[in-house]
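Suppose a colleague, Dr. K., hands you the sequence of a protein chain of 252 amino acids and asks what its three-dimensional shape might be. Before reaching for any lab equipment, you can write down a predicted structure in token form. Begin with the sequence itself:
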Amino acid sequence: MIRANQLVGRAVVDMDAAERLGHIKEIIVDREGHHVAGFVVARGESIFGGGTRRIIPASALHVIGPDAITIRGSAIKENTDDLKSLPRVSDIIGRKMVTQSGRLLGSIGDVLIDRGDGEIIGFSISEGARGKLEGIFGGEKAHVTCYVRADADLQVGNDLIVVPDDSLVQLEATQTQASPAADKVASTQAAPQGWGTTRSPSDRRSAWTKRNAVSESPTPSGSRPAGTPQPPDPNRPIVLPQNQDQVSRSEP
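The predicted structure, expressed as tokens, is then:
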């Protein structure tokens, strides 16, 4: 697997045109949030602005190399306009994660991607972000290097992502530290296959999609909550009870 931040900033080369197109600025995921759908490639940008951006579909990917990814420009046949509205990896970076048992994990620091087919494998937890959450959650924080499986039953809200306790996978030390030598070996092990392939719908939850929650809304004017007695109508005439034992008083 490869981390998303290992791809961002990497050069993009069109093999057919023998041309450097730019570097990866952002990673686009499909609407379900299960696979990489494409890349935003920037060229000529600086801190003062300028430059150009273009979208490359994941289906054009040829190889993820240690210094650049290569694509086949002739393979870009689909309309890339459809990719513009899709979510980005950057959309969920920094989102806070808590287990169902109430354990604070931290914030999403990176997204783990399968090199073979571009599937989103999981979300690594950023240890450096834990200190910023002390104002929200008290107690002792766990200091383990782990990631949350992307295929877990994720509960996504406005502020938090709640994950099952069994969705955590601890990473080995060798898995958390990337080196140029290891990257070169991994890049030659298997060429990407199936990136950007259209797949059938899945029941798997997405970290990019918020669940429909029951929201509290103010009671509309003129309506009453259930169980509230009807207030008296001031325009309704008052009918006095007819009591035979009642003592009547006559006017003087």
